[in-house]
Design brief:
Order of helices and strands: HHHEEEEEEEEEEEE
Helix content: 25-40%
Radius of gyration: 49 Å
Largest sheet: 6 strands, antiparallel, barrel
Number of strands: 12
Strand content: 25-35%
CATH superfamily of one domain: Rod shape-determining protein MreC, domain 2
CATH topology of one domain: Thrombin, subunit H
Distance between the termini: 142 Å
Strand order of the largest sheet: 1-2-5-4-3-12
Structural class: alpha+beta
Shape: rod-shaped
CATH architecture of one domain: Beta Barrel
Number of helices: 3
């Protein structure tokens, strides 16, 4: 049988065991009451505040560490996604640039055509509008190609004009295109007249392969001055191609040859062939 001393020790052990449990239950109940009371008064209980205060530095440190780690290696994790997004944005930017250029060109074309409305209304009803599709500014053969041909009623020697003035004449016709000989070509010549009322001198404007025309066959006493506007005279008999009154250009030089026997008059064409986009063919 156990001794009285052993029985007493056993009771003490059980008492300590139960005492710990009882203390935990009482402490939990006390904390619960405090938390409930603080919540009803919208205040944090002291224990929760103490725990939050004590753990705050650790939580903040962990958050800072996570952000630092994200900055260091995040590009590795998200690199592929970012690269794909960059490529998408680049393609979209290129598309918008092209679309903006297209709209800008459409606006410029519309404005240019609007400015030609008054000129077009003055043309004969039988005219044909055409786009310039090629330009060959060879000094020996100055021509351009338009996108209208025999199917549109274009014929050899049809006169070609622009809002600025005379362009030239058709010298070759296909079904859907035509070739135009420019005034500046060495083979071109047009009867010309000084528009100024005090003069009205008559001559012939000839191309010579340069950017200027030569006004030839003028009378020695012809009144021609710098700045005079030169128009087509409509003269030329049955071989005449150009109707009267079309603007040819402006006088930029007046002089005489070395012998003094012949006058030299240079005319700058009114039409800059290098900038032509649309022309009108008089059938």
């Amino acid at each position: 049988m156990r001794s009285l001393n052993e029985m007493r020790q056993e009771r003490r052990r059980r008492a300590r065991r139960y005492a710990g449990a009882i203390v935990c239950v009482l402490l939990g109940a006390t904390l619960g009451v405090l938390h409930d009371r603080s919540s009803r008064h919208s205040h944090a209980d002291p224990v929760t505040s103490a725990i939050r205060t004590g753990t705050a530095p650790f939580v903040e440190g962990a958050h800072s560490l996570r952000r630092w780690f994200g900055r260091q290696v995040g590009w590795i994790i998200h690199g592929r996604t970012l690269d794909a997004e960059m490529q998408r944005l680049k393609a979209e930017n290129e598309r918008l640039i092209a679309e903006n250029a297209r709209l800008r060109e459409a606006e410029i074309t519309a404005r240019r055509l609007r400015s030609q409305l008054g000129f077009v209304q003055q043309l004969p009803p039988s005219h044909v509008a055409a786009d310039v599709i090629a330009l060959f500014p060879n000094p020996n053969f100055r021509t351009l190609i338009i996108n209208r041909g025999s199917r549109a009623g274009i014929r050899l020697h049809s006169v070609v004009v622009a809002p600025q003035g005379l362009v030239g004449q058709v010298y070759d016709v296909a079904a859907t295109t035509s070739a135009v000989l420019l005034l500046t070509d060495a083979a071109s010549a047009v009867g010309a007249r000084v528009q100024r009322p005090e003069s009205r001198a008559v001559g012939v404007c000839k191309g010579n392969g340069s950017d200027l025309l030569t006004l030839a066959y003028l009378p020695r006493d012809a009144d021609v001055r710098l700045g005079d506007t030169i128009i087509s005279s409509g003269l030329g008999g049955t071989e005449g191609v150009y109707p009267k009154g079309l603007v040819i250009g402006t006088v930029v030089r007046v002089g005489e040859d070395a012998s003094g026997a012949e006058r030299i008059v240079k005319v700058k064409p009114a039409v800059d062939a290098y900038r032509l986009e649309e022309v009108y063919v008089l059938k």
